[in-house]
Amino acid sequence: MNQAKKQTPLHIAQQSFDFFQEIRNRLQALPPAITVQWRWVEGHQREAGMTMDWWAKRNDEVDSMAKKFLRACKRSKREHKPVQLWYEKWAIKLHGEKLANINSKQLYIALMRSTTLKDWQTHHTFPIKDPESVDWTSFGKALKRLPTGLQRFVTKFNSGHIGNNHMLHHRNAIPTPLCQNCNSNMIEKSSHVLRCRCPAAKQAFIQNVNKIIRTALTDQKTSPLLQETILSLIFKWRNYQKIRARDYPRDRDIQAAIKEQAIIGWHNFFLGRWSFKWQAVQKKYLFSIGSRRSSSRWATAIIINL
Ligand SMILES: [Zn+2]
User: Fold this and answer.
1) Cα separation of 306 and 304, whole Å?
2) Which of 42, 63, 98 is the last residue of a domain?
């Protein structure tokens, strides 16, 4: 009732945005001689056995009418389709259904998901050959749990827009895009930064993996075999060694995860764009030890530490 009578602007994302628009526009359309007075009536008074005044009776009456109509709709299996209301000035349909309120995030996903995923397939520094098989939910949850500054850093780094030599050169700020830390003659893109051959970078990487990722894997009760595999994969990838599923013969599920991750890409594994299959391996392990922990929480907790 407060939302209906107030003059403050409505927000498109609020519940029943369409109905509030309708009510407010109807009120505005009334001749000036008519003033509307608002009165709150407690609902379900009859069911509660209360003594009902005239207002409560009217409320009960319309309530029964609505219920009767609903029953008739259910009996006749009447198809429910949200429609643009008479006084609703504009409405947005998504997949042919009118939206009662507009969630910009949902709308963005509906409009841009396929374009964005297609874009990632040919990305200049971190291409994802099969973006549909990425567990984006765990990645998104991990990203959200980081402090705002880090969130920005990760987004820029992962999209290749961080101020590394490649980008600074692109913006004409420095004369060369090449990495100045190693003699590889390679362009310093985000992907190079992760695997720069400079001894200091390599040492820092090994230290961080052992300190942060190893600890997180243990703390999160990761399957011992999976712990071993993940660490081995990260070091192999860092050392430019070939990663083959057949080198991990002790578990078929791990092999399947390796095969799918190989298509997504190993850079992407390190960035937290994981195949769903990693979670499946951990889920089986948790079940086998009778743990009630969630494998999706596990994935998020590991990814956050990458
Ligand atoms: Zn380098």
Assistant:
1) 6
2) 98
